[in-house]
């Protein structure tokens, strides 16, 4: 039998056909059955292979479709993540903005706390100053008491000096009487010597006894000469001491007069300078306080305006970013709403939430409008802020009516307007306090001008300057009112005012430095006065030493009188001895002549002594005159001390006036502290409101994130179900198409050999 090769299909199927010519006829039914069986097996095999290939193709197609769906899902996830990232960034920026706002509010609260601490410190300084003034007053009283005691002691010292002068005069009179007696005794001795000379010629027999008596007399004369020399030395020393004392008294008197005049002038100048410096210090303190309050109010106003501008700019940026994010979110929501039905329900819920939020915003807007109307009604009572506040209220109403989406911004602006009105009220209060302090200063200057009669011209000039300053302050108040009416131009005017305040602060610092130097000069004057007091004490000690020297001189005079009395007794004994030895003296004419010469020398010495004593009496008289002059100077000094006490009382009155001014200033500072506390409370309320708004926005952002996550999950589930259904439909269609094509091809191939 010939073999015919069979055709091969795509599945490498080989069919061995029987030979047509050599097949026997009796085996045809069995061969047909076997061929049909083989055909059926081949068809089953082909169908199985076709099904396997269709399954592989459907699996590959499903995998490619799954990859495409995964890519689309990844793209949608990336878009959703980008939108969520934008929303998160917007939320973070809003949170950061609120955090910055909270930081600014916290810094403002810290600044308010620091200002309160500064006010407390100033109050403590004022209290310390009042205590120092009280101590100064007590010291002045103690000093007045010590001065009274010093005057009393000076009076006692003058009385003691007068008594000593009287005693010295009495001693001088006694010394003159004793000197006259000594002179008479000397004359008598001279007469006795002449008589002895006459009798010496008749005494010649007692030479030996005369010689002995002459030696004894010579010895007595030598002792008398030594005594006379010692007396002369003592008189010379006493005369020298008297001359030195006179010179010292003259120098002390001259220095005392000069010192008294200088002290009086220095005290007058010191009192005048102290009064002027106290007035200047009070004026400078009040002016510095008013300027500081004005500077703080202006700085606070500038800071609030800057915060308003920064908040407006930041709010605009946040609104723009929020609008862009909202637009992107709305577009994503539209796409998601077109894709799924669940988003419709979520959007309905969102619309309900939005409606509730709109109603809440409308309620907040109504509250804001009511608050603005209440603020307008409250600000109508303010004379200085009426026009500006009405304009602000109208602008706020227009802004509330025109911008319904920015009601939160309107609320913040209303709060900031309230803070600005509070700051303006505090500024007006500060200006009123400044005007009151200026009026008090003018009143104090008038009292000072009435009290200081010697400085009338300077006080008048100072009062004129204060009046000019008051006029300038009134003009500044008028300008401030105009500036409050024109708030749109307040930025440039505030900057110019700030520069002027800086210049004024520099001038105040210079003035404070000058006052510090003047205070140092006053301290130097006080030190000079203390040195002068020490010098007075030294002079008192010198006077005491002079008194002791006078006492020593009186003792020396008493000793001299005693020596003269002893000498008189010796002379009397010698006269008695002369009478007894008259006969012996007649024999010793030569010795007597020598003794007469010695007596003449003694007489000359006594005459010199008498002249010296006369000069001493003249010096004592001059000293009495100087003591009387010193008494007059002490009286003048006592009058000066009385004037000083009067000036001290005037200073006490001025100190009381200054203390009253300090009390008034403390009351003004207390009012300022209360206004600052009220402002701090408003700032605290604004911070609480801002924190609540931040919490609400954070909750809204969390709700948006949850909604976005829910939408993303629902969209993913829907996309997965659609992809699975599409994959199943496509796989079924492809499988059916593949099976049909394979069947047709197999049938065609099977039928092709029969046709041949």
Describe the secondary-structure layout.
Blueprint: H1 28-200, H2 207-339, H3 342-379, H4 386-402, H5 407-451, H6 456-485, H7 490-580, H8 582-587, H9 589-755
Q: What would you note in describing this structure?
A:
With 756 residues, this protein is mostly helical. The chain has a domain at 153-265 and 535-646. The chain has nine helices and no strands. The chain has helices spanning 28-200, 207-339, 342-379, 386-402, 407-451, 456-485, 490-580, 582-587, 589-755. Keywords: Coiled coil. Residues 81-122, 224-305, 355-413, 455-601 form a coiled coil.
Order of helices and strands: HHHHHHHHH
Low-confidence stretches: 1-26
In terms of quaternary structure, the protein is single chain
What is the strand tally? Answer: 0
Most strands sheet: none
Between the first and last Cα atoms, what is the distance in angstroms? 19 Å
Summary keywords:
756 residues, 9 helices, coiled coil, mainly alpha, disordered N terminus
Brief description of this entry?
The protein has 756 residues and is mainly alpha-helical. It has helices at residues 28-200, 207-339, 342-379, 386-402, 407-451, 456-485, 490-580, 582-587, 589-755.
